[in-house]
Amino acid sequence: MTITSALTRHLKKPELFSNLAGVPEGDLQSLPKFAVFDPATGDVLAELPDMGIPQVALAIDRAHAAQAQWAALTARQRSDLLWEWHRLILQHSEDLASILTAEMGKPFTEAKSEVAHAAAYLQWYAEEANRIYGETISAPSVDRRMIVIKQPVGVVGAITPWNFPASMIARKISPALAAGCAVVVKPAEQTPLVAGAMFALARMAGFPSGVLNLIYASEGASVGYELCTNPKVRKISFTGSTEVGRLLMRQCSDQIKRVSFELGGNAPFIVFDDADVDAAVDGALQAKFRNAGQTCVSANRLYVQSGVFTEFAEKFTARVGELRVGNGFDPGVSIGPLIDTRALAKMQSHIADAIEKGAVVRCGGEPVSADGTFFQPTVITEVTRDMRLAQEETFGPLAPIIRFEDADQVVAEANDTIYGLAAYFYASNLKRVWHVAEALEYGMVGINTGRMSSEAAPFGGMKQSGIGREGSRHGLEDYLEMKYLCMGGL
Known about the structure:
Structural class: alpha/beta
CATH architecture of the largest domain: 3-Layer(aba) Sandwich
Radius of gyration: 23 Å
Number of domains: 2
CATH topology of the largest domain: Aldehyde Dehydrogenase, Chain A, domain 1
Strand content: 15-25%
């Protein structure tokens, strides 16, 4: 479990993360290992124990044993530990960002922003831990009292994605910990190192043994199955594809286990004739190319009304052409590598399908080199609905621009998908703003902005983009059981 020189050369304090702490106790030395790679260079960053069902079951047992004692702490005690973890993450943010860039590839400035965002979730729920309130209800007779209290749901199994490996850890487990739930976390096999570093800091913060448990595994199917079917786990929180979400929901159904899912998206980005075009270009660059387009809320379909289509397309294409592709540690880089060769192949297949059906590549369209997973940021016009890039989530730096005429029709077309995670639009007419905002069938709508994620706001989707919300006070409710107490004979 020792990190290699490929990573330590980027760290200010390599000794702090030399042993990736937080794994369940037991004999891990005999387990097979799996490698974690730098997608920018192909270097091996670490070799980790490849845990299976026995280790997952052990982690669940440890969490279950710690659950009652953790729930019995006062809200202030749990809050203080979250505050200390928050402080340590900020103190070591440069090292955490270095780990994140090395294993995921995103530019170092974006990695630092993600670490700060992760810390913000810990801060938010450190505060919210003290605001778990019950209520009293007026009783129908004088000899009764009716009270509602809230208690932790129990052990939580969390499965996090590779594209935001630090913030997703914090966003899922900070409300669980604030509510009084012990957790078992399985990070994505491509990006487990920042999770290990964060858990090392949690141990330094003083969290009791068994409250936080980390699973390293090269594949998620068996881990997910054990988390979903083990009766000691009372809730599953998952971020990933809709396909996997359906499978996990089926596995949880026999126990009627509570779930929170943040699944796939196909976000529309709509620019109306009355929009500030320059602001819309700025917003589209944010919504499309952050993390090389590898975000669940990435703008996947850019709809631009005819009156401003030419102006938007020209200005947007020019700005995209200025984006610099390269290793996330290099100064001035705004687009890092795609996570793996499968992501590269999907980009290529979407572009080839679009060109075959009449689309025009305005800029980009090719891998940066024959080796690696770097891809030019790409803009495509003359896009029609029958193209794959208009129907499927690309998850890469590909921006298809679709011309539209009628405002009501574009809203209908934006809603014509099984997904409903995020949508964006730019307009200035207040009547139109309210009409479109209410008509879009999405859990989150950005109005004249290309970035809307915040620890203070509920993050989640409609339709097949998920169940439940993360962030805000609403995110805490997903980890609490409501209990009604009726006291008679008074």
